[in-house]
Amino acid sequence: MHQPAVPHLAATDPEIADLVEAEARRQHEKIRLIPSENYVSTAVLEATGTVLTNKYSEGYADRRYYEGQQLIDPIETLAVDRAKALFGVDHANVQPYSGSPANLAIYLAFLDPGDTVMGMALPMGGHLTHGWSVSATGKWFRSVQYGVRKDTGRVDLDEVRELALRERPKLIFCGGTAIPRTIDFPAFAEIAAEVGAVLAADIAHIAGLIAGGAHPSPVGHAQVISTTTHKTLRGPRGAMLMSDAEHAKALDKAVFPGLQGGPHNHTTAAIAVALREAAEPSFRDYAHAVVANANALAQALLERGFDLVSGGTDNHLILVDLTSKGIAGKPAAKALDRAGIELNYNTVPFDPRKPFDPSGIRLGTPAITTRGLGVEQMPVLAEWIDGAVRAAGEGDEAAIERIAAEVAELLAGYPMPGWA
């Protein structure tokens, strides 16, 4: 059953309660490989379900527009102080509702409509809010996009510098959603300094790896840092902005009153809990295990003939081009889900297919590492992935069902926070 239990929900709205229970069971029985997902601790789950959700708190600690903040202010202050200590930053804002509004606050803080922003193109691994055309950030600002080399699948920083010198952006984003390699924050910082741009590091995917010392930090290189608080950080669905002292005031004004009203206090408390957990020595072990598992899984997939973008991974994420397997990403992802292996279909660099029916799949190891799986299980997982992809191409549903049963049998021995 769902843990903590939801008896009042079951009594009031059994239809929703049944769906919650079913989702908890589904998460327990699936190998969850979507790299932007994880399992939060029971403590984080409890914090998100508290009476803190009842309280409005427009403004910042000691500068609120509503009364009754005597206990809310210390909660937000704890979250801010823990973020500053964990990441070693001058300033932190824990109020953004999610990653996209956090990034939009950066635009509001430092750009005017029509100014030039440079970010990684979405099909190359960037994020919608880094200036992609269908996003408000691509409609309201002049966007120039960099990508990766076709032969290596990696960012060519000489080309990034040439583009920056030619286009003179006021804001440069580094980071993204499908980048399997280490982000060179010092090199981006040099480029930004040369053209007089603010450098924003979007570490949403790798925040937990940075906190755990498994990926280099942008602190001291990027003036502004944005991140979600879920993914590798294992917190609730929220976001943070961090910065040096010089850029702090502009960021705070952009979040409130620029974009948002009252923060979600129950989320703030859960962020504080997750940050405390991330400061424990065991979290460093977790972060390094995430990377070790990703490397082991990537190697096992390579041995089975899979084509990995950039040839492998340095972090938690693996991007696979399935062209050589004779199947597109979408049918492969759906077959894998039926086989008990949850990941997402994804474009790959220079993909000739459309985004809703792309050539690739994206997978990662944060959630399975939280469950306790280690490098010794990665070859078996790669074998299941290979078998399910082949079965999808052959229409062999019996093989897919057999893999699903084997997955469930394995996971029965690995507890999951949120399910008892």
Summary?
This protein has helices at 7-12, 14-29, 42-48, 72-87, 99-110, 136-139, 157-167, 185-195, 207-211, 248-259, 265-278, 281-303, 329-338, 366-371, 378-394, 397-411, and strands at 31-32, 59-60, 63-64, 91-93, 116-120, 142-146, 171-175, 198-202, 224-228, 239-243, 307-308, 317-321, 341-342, 344-346, 360-364.
Structural write-up:
This protein is an alpha/beta fold. It folds into two domains: 47-278, Type I PLP-dependent aspartate aminotransferase-like (Major domain) (Aspartate Aminotransferase, domain 2, 3-Layer(aba) Sandwich); 288-411, Alpha-Beta Complex (Aspartate Aminotransferase, domain 1), CATH 3.90.1150.10. Helix content is 44%, strand content 13%. It contains 16 helices and 15 strands. The protein has helices at residues 7-12, 14-29, 42-48, 72-87, 99-110, 136-139, 157-167, 185-195, 207-211, 248-259, 265-278, 281-303, 329-338, 366-371, 378-394, 397-411, and strands spanning 31-32, 59-60, 63-64, 91-93, 116-120, 142-146, 171-175, 198-202, 224-228, 239-243, 307-308, 317-321, 341-342, 344-346, 360-364. A seven-stranded mixed β-sheet has the order 4-10-9-8-7-5-6, with helices on both faces. A four-stranded antiparallel β-sheet has the order 11-12-15-14, with helices on one face. It has a two-stranded parallel sheet with strand order 1-13. A hairpin with a 2-residue loop joins strand 2 (59-60) and strand 3 (63-64). Helix 3 (42-48) runs antiparallel to helix 11 and helix 4 (72-87) runs parallel beside helix 11 (265-278). The radius of gyration is 22 Å and the shape is globular. The protein starts with 6 loop residues before the first helix and ends in a 9-residue tail after the last helix. It comes from Solihabitans fulvus. It is found in: Cytoplasm. The modification N6-(pyridoxal phosphate)lysine is found at residue 231. Its cofactor is pyridoxal 5'-phosphate. Belongs to the SHMT family.
